Structures are given as C-alpha cells and as structure tokens.
UniProtKB/TrEMBL annotation, chain A:
A Pfam family per the record: BPD_transp_1
Membrane topology note: Multi-pass membrane protein
UniProt keyword list: Cell membrane, Membrane, Transmembrane, Transmembrane helix, Transport
Compartment annotation: Cell membrane
Classification via PANTHER family: ABC TRANSPORTER PERMEASE PROTEIN, ABC TRANSPORTER PERMEASE PROTEIN YESP-RELATED
UniProt-recorded name of the protein: Carbohydrate ABC transporter membrane protein 1 (CUT1 family)
GO cellular component, one term: plasma membrane
Taxonomy, superkingdom: Bacteria
Family stated for the protein in its record: Belongs to the binding-protein-dependent transport system permease family.
Any single biological process term in GO: transmembrane transport
Annotated signal peptide: none
Organism of origin: Cohnella lupini
Automatic annotation (TrEMBL), chain B:
Gene Ontology CC annotations of this record: plasma membrane
Source organism of this protein record: Cohnella lupini
Entry protein name: Carbohydrate ABC transporter membrane protein 2 (CUT1 family)
PANTHER family, alphabetized: ABC TRANSPORTER PERMEASE PROTEIN MG189-RELATED-RELATED, ABC TRANSPORTER PERMEASE PROTEIN YESQ-RELATED
Cell membrane is among the record's keywords: yes
C-alpha cells in the first residue's frame, strides 16, 4: 500500500512535465511529420500530397538550396572559431591570476547580450560601410566593404556576431580546465616539456569531454540561429539570400507564406541534418574523446 | 627575478584587459551614441561626447504613435515574471520527483526528458502554433506563458543534479517526523535547492526577455508587443532617420539583463558550467 502511495506521489509531481511532454512535444512531433506530407495554410483542411513537399525541396526550391549553403557556411565557420576563441581565452584566464572574476564578467557580457534584438541592431551599424569595424580597418589602411549590403560579405557579419559571443563556452572550458590535475603539468615541466607539448599532450586530451560537450551544444544552437539574421537583413535574408539562415527561411515559408506543410517538411530536414551532425560526433567520440575515469 | 615577473604579469593583465575592452567596444559605443547629439553620432570618432543629451531617450520612448515604450517594458516584465514562477515551480516539481521518489518507468521518462533538450524547436513549432491558433490563443500572452508551466528540461536536469547533492538522511528523518511528500518537497528540499532555483529563475528571465522568435510569431497587436518586438518595430519605422533614438531604446532594452546578471553573477557561472546554457 505504502508503495503505491509513493508511486502516486512520484507521478503527481511529474504530472505538469508529463502534460507538457504529451501536448508540446509528443503530439506536435507526430503532427509535424503528418503535416510535412500535406499542403496546409491554416484556413482550409490539410491536403495530403505525399512526398511533394520533399520533392520540391530537393528539386525545385533554389532558395532552399541557397539557404542550406548559407547555413552550412555560417555553422562551419562560426562554431570552430567560437570554440577556438573560447578555449584560447579560457587557458589564458586559467593561470590562477588576480581579477579572474572581472575578466570572466567582461568576456561573458557579449554572450549575455548577443541574442538580443538590441545587439543585432547595433551590429547592423558596426558592419555598415562607415561603421565601427571599417573605421578600425581604416586605421590599418584597409578600405572595408559594406559588410551588410554586399552579398559576398553579409554572412561574415553574422559569423562575427556569433564568434563574439564566445563567453559562455569559455566559462565551460574554464570549469573543465580547473579539473585537470596540476601535478601533471608539474611533472611535465620537470621532464622539460615545452608549453606546446603540454598543451598537446595534457590539456587537449583531458579536455576532450568538454570540447565534445561544447561542440555538440554549439552546433545544435548554431543550426537554429534566427534573431541575428532576421534583424540584420530586415526579415528578408538578403541581400540575394546571403543571410537566409535555415530558421529564417522556415519562418518565411511557414508564417509569411502560410505554407505550413512545407515548413514542417523543412523542420524535418533540419532535424535530420542536426541528427546527422550530432550522430557523427557521438559515433566518432570514442576515438577522440578521452574519459579519465576509465570509461572507453 | 621578482621584477621580471611583475613586468610579465603587468603585460599579461594589460593584454587580457585590453582585449576584453576591445570586445566590449561596440557596447560602449552604443552607450555613447545614445547620449551624443545627433550630428555627432557618426562623425566623431571618440567615445566621449562633446555634450551629453538625453533627448534620444525621450524621442525613442515617445517615438511611436499611440504607444510608448513603457507599455512594451510592462508587457515584457509581466511575461517574464509569469515565466519565472511557472518554470521554477514546474521544473522543481519534476526534478524532485526524478531525484527523490522511486516509481515505475522513471528512467524512461528521464531519458525522454533529456531527449527533448536535443530536439530542435522547429519540429514542434508549427503544430504548436496550429494548436494555439485553433483554441484562439494567438495574439494573446497565453502561448508564451502556458508552456512555462510544464517545466523546462534544462532546468529539471540542473535541479535534479543539485537535489542529488542533498543528503538523503534528511528525507528519512523528515518521514519519521511524519512529513508527507509535499511537505518534504516544499519545506525541506526546495529551501535547500535555492541556489539551483535562483539559477533557473535568472536564466528563465533572460531567456524570456530576449525570446524574439516566440514573441514575433504569437503577438501581432502592438498593444501586446514586448521590448524586442517594440524595438524591431521602432527600427523599421524610424531606422536610419533617427539612429540616436534607436540606440537609446536599445540601451534601455539591455538594462534588465545586465542588472539581473550583476545581481546573480555567481549563479550564472554555476548554471553555465553545469548545463552549457545561454549563448
């Protein structure tokens, strides 16, 4: 009897989460899969069209092609740079020095604010022809382009904004670096190892679980970036689709054209792309992620 | 030797601080542009304005017809407060259940919950929108508020980790004293989990404050606009004609995040290090 009372309590406390799981996750996932095979504009009933949405995506929709290219470029450039910056700064800050708290705060502020509309607005200005960035370049004698208006460069303003927000990743790296036993470095120093060798043979291997974690999280987040692209391009993804990140195009399809069936199909393609990337990370992790507690 | 080390340390700090300030330069510039006379914003190179003016702030605040920025702030604030209460309450309940009570299928539910963290929101977005549309909730705060009352997997995980660190003997002795599960949750585990709850509250506040996408989709009546939507509207309507006012409102829109951040700094660092949130 007591046992069942305990069960009841467990389920009762879990009830809100469970309701949410059913109504906000499970049924929407199923509905989304169904909708991806239909044409649906919210007003009339969904119309079953088989694989037509998927066919259109792969054969007809050149904007989607552009969008995928832009998104890959954005993810594959911003993620490594963000992680590299974060790791570099974390190692610099991990020298057990004074003012660590202050520095951590300074470097975290861009992460804190970077997702806001305000910073995207500011960024529009920073990367303008006469903006801050070009003013900086002109000090070096370089005449910078109009980053936002030039389709060749527009995506780099978004990548720059993303890399600028490396602070949160840095804090996770800092926590990871603190876990590495100092004796290892001391022993290596006694053996006359150089800084680079210590980095390659101690820091990097022992940090691989944290790198793996950061890589996965940042990758998933980056594929879903929306606000920056929306604000900086004024909601269009322009010039000439050069900032049409996947989420932005999905929003345009679903909520501007009210093509909800097609947008659902796009969501599934995104899920598959993200799953493929994280899948590769997980599958290869056993070859490059090192767990010091003896797990493989 | 000591002098050598001091010089090294000096350069080190100069480098770290200098690079950090360089990174923050755009933010300082934003702040300075918001109080510079209009003619100076794009012409003077320096940060320091020749004279400080707050006219951009009043121009921005009253810059939209029929509505003031105060309304947007009030809307955002209401949304955030409700979101914080809902998230902390529901996430902590689920976390308490996962961390302290044994029942069949617990591990399955826990795995499902963690799975939802990895799921890109786009997959559930459209059916959720259709559902809220069908029940007439679009263009109200309800689609933005109600989902907060079912818990957030990230915070459930964070709080579970925290509760696992609280000695189980407390539960035993509480039960001997005749405590029921609810009393145990509310009177013992919750107060002891306060740091984790504060972390969850802070992140929820900031996440809701900056949640442009959800608000963009669900809100269309300008009276219900939140700060991000108001700012975007203001950018579109006055844009290049009045950058000063746009910058002034941008500054105001990030003040709450900054204040919360500085008040709850230590919780921030903990929260990020445990869950990899925000970023």
């Amino acid at each position: 009897m007591q046992k069942y009372k305990t069960y009841a309590a467990g389920y009762l406390f879990l009830l809100p989460w469970f309701i949410g799981f059913i109504f906000l996750y499970l049924s929407p996932i199923i509905a989304s899969l169904y909708l991806s095979f239909t044409r649906y504009d919210l007003l009339s009933a969904p119309q079953w069209i088989g694989f037509d949405n998927y066919k259109t995506m792969f054969t007809d929709d050149y904007r989607l092609g552009d969008s995928i290219k832009v998104t890959f470029k954005y993810v594959l450039l911003s993620v490594p740079f963000r992680l590299a910056f974060a790791l570099g700064l974390a190692m610099l800050l991990n020298q057990g020095m004074k003012f660590l708290g202050l520095y951590r705060t300074i470097y975290y502020i861009p992460s804190l604010l970077g997702g806001s509309v305000a910073i995207s607005v500011l960024w529009k200005q920073v990367f303008d022809k006469e903006g801050l960035y070009n003013q900086g370049l002109s000090l070096l004698g370089i005449d910078g382009p109009n980053w936002i208006a030039d389709p060749h460069y527009a995506i780099f303003s978004l990548i720059g904004l993303s890399v600028w927000q490396f602070g949160s990743v840095m804090i996770i790296f800092l926590a990871g670096l603190k876990q590495i036993p100092q004796e290892l470095y001391e022993a290596a120093t006694v053996d006359g190892a150089s800084i680079f060798r210590k980095f390659a043979r101690i820091t990097l291997p022992l940090l691989t679980p944290v790198i793996f974690f950061n890589l996965t999280i940042t990758l998933i987040q980056s594929f879903q970036t929306f606000t920056k692209a929306f604000i900086i391009s004024g909601g269009s993804g322009g010039p000439i689709n050069s900032t049409l990140l996947y989420s932005l195009y999905l929003y345009i399809k679903g909520f501007t054209f009210l093509d909800m069936g097609y947008a659902s199909a796009m969501a599934w393609l995104l899920l598959i792309i993200i799953a493929a990337f994280t899948g590769v990370l997980f599958l290869t992790s056993r070859y490059w992620v090192y767990y010091s507690d003896g797990r493989d | 030797m000591a002098i050598h080390r001091q010089i090294r340390s000096f350069f080190f700090h100069a480098l770290v601080l200098g690079f950090g300030l360089l990174m923050l330069y755009p933010v300082f510039w934003l702040l300075s542009a918001s109080v510079k006379p209009t003619t100076e914003i794009f012409t003077s190179k320096g940060l320091w304005p020749s004279s400080i003016t707050f006219e951009h702030y009043s121009e921005g605040w009253f810059g939209l017809r029929n509505i003031q920025f105060g309304r947007f702030f009030l809307n955002s604030l209401i949304l955030c407060v409700v979101a914080v209460i809902g998230t902390v309450l529901s996430s902590s309940m689920a976390a308490f259940s996962f961390a302290r009570i044994n029942f069949p299928l617990k591990n399955l539910f826990f795995a499902l919950m963690l799975g939802t963290i990895m799921l890109p929101g786009h997959v559930t977005l459209i059916p959720q929108y259709i559902m809220f549309h069908k029940i007439g909730w679009v263009d109200t705060f309800l689609p933005l508020m109600t989902p907060k009352f079912v818990g957030d997997a990230f915070f459930v995980f964070l709080i579970v980790q925290f509760i696992r660190g609280i000695p189980k003997e407390l539960d035993e002795s509480a039960k001997i004293d005749g405590c029921g599960w609810f009393t145990l949750y509310f009177r013992i585990i919750m107060p002891l989990s306060l740091p984790a709850l504060i972390t969850a509250a802070i992140f929820t506040f900031m996440g809701t404050w900056d949640d442009f996408f959800g608000q963009l989709i669900y809100l269309s009546d300008i009276k219900k606009f939140t700060v991000p939507l108001g700012l975007r509207l203001f950018l579109d309507s006055s844009g290049s004609s009045n950058w000063g006012a746009v910058f002034a409102m941008s500054v105001l829109s990030i003040v709450p995040s900054l204040v919360i951040f500085f008040l709850g700094q230590k919780y921030f660092t903990q929260g990020i290090a445990t869950t990899g949130l925000k970023g």
